[in-house]
């Protein structure tokens, strides 16, 4: 396939099926290319900027892939939470330096992925904490802040030393309490302290 054919094929996949992230096997199938010759084509296409490699074994059109698209393609059980989700929901002022994803799978060596979209860290959590959000790969503000406090306590750092919270009055207290029930009592106490100081 020529470069323009690849662009049209990927655009068609996006428009018809809302698919933007592809494995080499998927690219081989949609292009009817032999897997060995595809590897050589991919090197050339990435070099020319026709296709972008977002992480090992994951490709897409340049600028067309969001972190919410990439994470589920790497681990379908993972969801975005913590500082990244809080920033997305405008609950903190700082841009996150890493993207925390909670999963119920162990990633071992591939736990950290450095991508053009940011540094993704997969955190395997217990079944009592793990809760995939409904209809989206991004945790709600209530879940994200509970998970963020959990991560900070696990790392031995204070939440308020890392971020400046804002818009905490938008949190749904019932949802927040439901999320906090999944965590240790220390997380709930820290959350109460955060809310007291924000008032």
Describe the secondary structure blueprint for this structure.
Blueprint: H1 3-17, H2 24-31, H3 35-48, E1 52-55, E2 58-60, H4 67-74, E3 79-80, H5 82-88, E4 98-103, E5 112-115, E6 118-124, H6 141-155, H7 159-162, H8 173-180, H9 185-198
Parallel strand pairs: 4-6
Antiparallel strand pairs: 1-2, 3-4, 5-6
Helix pairs in contact: 5-6, 6-8, 6-9
Describe the structure.
It contains nine helices and six strands, in the order H-H-H-E-E-H-E-H-E-E-E-H-H-H-H. 47% of the residues lie in helices and 13% in strands. It has 199 residues and is of the alpha+beta class. The model has no long low-confidence stretch (mean pLDDT 93). It is elongated, with a radius of gyration of 20 Å. The strands form two sheets. A four-stranded mixed sheet has the order 3-4-6-5. It has helices at 3-17, 24-31, 35-48, 67-74, 82-88, 141-155, 159-162, 173-180, 185-198, and strands at residues 52-55, 58-60, 79-80, 98-103, 112-115, 118-124.
Reading the helices and strands in chain order gives HHHEEHEHEEEHHHH
What is the rounded distance between the termini?
Answer: 60 Å
Strand percentage = 5-15%
Characterize the quaternary organization of these chains: single chain
- Which residues sit in consecutive blocks of at least 5 with pLDDT less than 50? none
Mean pLDDT across all amino acids: 93
Q: Domain count, please report it.
A: 2
Q: What class would the helix/strand composition place it in? A: alpha+beta
Principal-axis shape equals elongated
Number of helices: 9
Helical proportion, percent range: 40-55%
Strands ordered across the widest β-sheet: 3-4-6-5
């Amino acid at each position: 396939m020529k470069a323009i054919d690849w662009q049209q094929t990927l655009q068609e996949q996006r428009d018809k099926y809302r698919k933007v992230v592809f494995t080499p096997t998927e690219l081989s199938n949609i292009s009817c290319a032999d897997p060995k010759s595809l590897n050589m084509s991919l090197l050339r296409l990435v070099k020319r900027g026709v296709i972008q490699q977002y992480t090992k074994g994951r490709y897409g059109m340049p600028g067309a892939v969001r972190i919410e698209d990439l994470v589920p393609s790497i681990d379908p059980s993972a969801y975005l939470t913590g500082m990244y989700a809080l920033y997305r929901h405008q609950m903190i002022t700082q841009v996150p330096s890493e993207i925390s994803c909670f999963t119920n799978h162990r990633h071992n060596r591939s736990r950290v992925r450095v991508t053009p979209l940011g540094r993704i860290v997969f955190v395997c959590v217990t079944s009592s904490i793990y809760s995939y959000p409904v209809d989206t790969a991004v945790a709600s503000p209530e879940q994200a802040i509970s998970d963020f406090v959990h991560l900070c306590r696990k790392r031995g750092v204070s939440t308020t030393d890392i971020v400046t919270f804002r818009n905490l009055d938008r949190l749904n207290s019932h949802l927040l309490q439901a999320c906090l029930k999944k965590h240790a009592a220390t997380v709930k106490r820290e959350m109460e302290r955060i809310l007291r100081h924000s008032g």
